[in-house]
Amino acid sequence: MPGINHSQWRDPVRLVENPPVLCLLHHAGGSAALYTHWQPHFPAHWSVHCLELPDRARPDNRAAPLSTPGQLAKRLLEKIPNGDGPLALFGHSMGAVVACEVAQQLVQRGRPPAWIGLSSCAAPQVLSTRDHLHELSDTELRAALHSLGGTPKEVLNDLELWESFGPAIRRDLKAAETWQGPSTRIDVPFSVFGGCDDQNTPPSHLHGWERHLGTFLGVRIYPGDHFYLTAWADLLVQQIQLDLLTSTRPHT
Fold first, then answer.
1. Are strands 47-51 and 190-195 parallel, antiparallel or unpaired?
2. What pTM, to 2 d.p., does this model score?
3. Exposure pattern of 35-52 as b/e (b: 16+ CB <10 Å)?
């Protein structure tokens, strides 16, 4: 079982002068509900936002789709609140890809985040070598998503619902699985997270992000599969606090 050496840090309330702003980004085929049970684990003064990826809850097939992580990130920038404290991003699976694009656009606007957390997402150079879920048939894709978890069973089992949500899920998967990485290196501290039994993104696929981002704080592996984070919210939140504090600590 993973653990944190609490002797290395004190109460983050006293270590961070200004309340951090933390934005959590969910996976393809999911929603911000992935993080609803995380809120009680954060210090009360933190500003924590579970962001909904655009057009997920009620897809509009008549509208021009947001088909790339960059397009999704541009839309999400409108939802990121301003604050005096450090800004942090944590993304799970496709959410990690979008978090990188958000970070790059924030850097271009002169507001770089203090830290990025990437969960269950292979490094870009690994993504290009894997079999892609978005290329499967509808029947195969629904079976794969059922095995992977994270997508409501009602969507996978109801053909009418699948006809509504399936194209958006497939589009999201294609956007994430064909992503080539950020166009320029994002000089922001980051950490990587994953599940030791994740068949879709095994721990070996989590290495290599160093060539795309800034200071590397480490890979944190937890028991579980692709959605390991649903069982380890308390420890993950503690690790996020520690990593953000490490990223914002003045250099001596």
1. unpaired
2. 0.87
3. beebeeebeeebebebbb
Catalytic sites, residue numbers: 93, 226
Residue written as token pair 């290009």: 128
Angle at 104 between CA 101 and CA 106, to 5 degrees: 110
Tokens 């290395």 belong to which residue?
8
The 10 Å Cβ neighbour count of residue 229 is 23
Give the pLDDT confidence of 19-71 residue by residue, as tens digits: 899 999 999 888 899 998 998 999 888 999 999 887 655 545 555 566 789 98
* DSSP structural state of residue 153: H
β-strand pairing of 21-25 with 47-51? parallel
Question: What residues contact residue 86 under an 8 Å CB cut-off, 6+ apart?
Answer: 16, 18, 20, 21, 113, 114, 115, 244, 247, 248
How many Cβ atoms are within 10 Å of 5's Cβ, its own excluded?
Answer: 7
Residue 160: burial class (beta carbons within 10 Å; 0-12, 13-18, 19+): exposed
